[in-house]
Amino acid sequence: MTMTTNPEFPPHAVRSESELMSLLRAAGLRPTRQRLVLARLLLGGMDRHVSAEQLHAEAIAQGEQVSLATVYNALHQFRAAGLVRELVIDAARAYFDTNTSNHNHFFIEADGVLLDIPGAGIEVARMPEPPPGMRISHIDVVVRLVPDEGASKA
């Protein structure tokens, strides 16, 4: 199931509990207590990039009893429903992005921080022809950043 951005729920709006319940239902997900807790943390405000471990730590810090496995399951359900995008940075790191539009990212390797590349900062000149029966849904470009050694000596 793919979901496009719903104008009733703008991406940068702070959402109430009832709006989050409606958002989950519209995505075909039953708004269980744990899904609502995670939706509030993840989708309740500004767009963000978060790992399952970060979201789990935030839930625990707020006194919520939720397992890391439940967080992973919910994030993958949110991804399948089109509520978040998953960006696999390497074999050990995946981030979930609440901005589901087609956009690209900077990844600051030393800090493990993922940032949106503003606007049309990257252009793809040519697209490969997909195999028969397939279409390209989007392209993920992650530009990895490291400190500029010359800049730190200035």
Please tell me about this protein's structure.
With 154 residues, the chain is an alpha+beta fold. It is 31% helix and 16% strand. It has 2 domains: 17-90, Winged helix-like DNA-binding domain superfamily/Winged helix DNA-binding domain (Arc Repressor Mutant, subunit A); 102-152, no CATH class. The strands form 2 sheets. Strands 1-3-2 form a 3-stranded antiparallel β-sheet. It has a 3-stranded mixed β-sheet with strand order 5-4-6, with no helix packed on it. Helix 1 crosses helix 2 (33-43), helix 2 (33-43) crosses helix 3 (52-61) and helix 3 packs across helix 4 (68-80). The longest helix has 13 residues, at 68-80. It is globular and about 45 Å long. It starts with 16 loop residues before the first helix and ends with a helix.
Total domain units = 2
Largest sheet: 3 strands, antiparallel
- What is the CATH topology of the largest domain? Arc Repressor Mutant, subunit A
CATH level 4 superfamily of the largest domain: Winged helix-like DNA-binding domain superfamily/Winged helix DNA-binding domain
Instruction: Name the beta content range.
Output: 15-25%
The low-pLDDT segments are: 1-10
Strand order in the largest sheet: 1-3-2
Overall pLDDT score? 86
Write a short abstract of this structure:
With 154 residues, the protein is of the alpha+beta class. The protein folds into two domains: 17-90, Arc Repressor Mutant, subunit A (Orthogonal Bundle), CATH 1.10.10; 102-152, no CATH class.
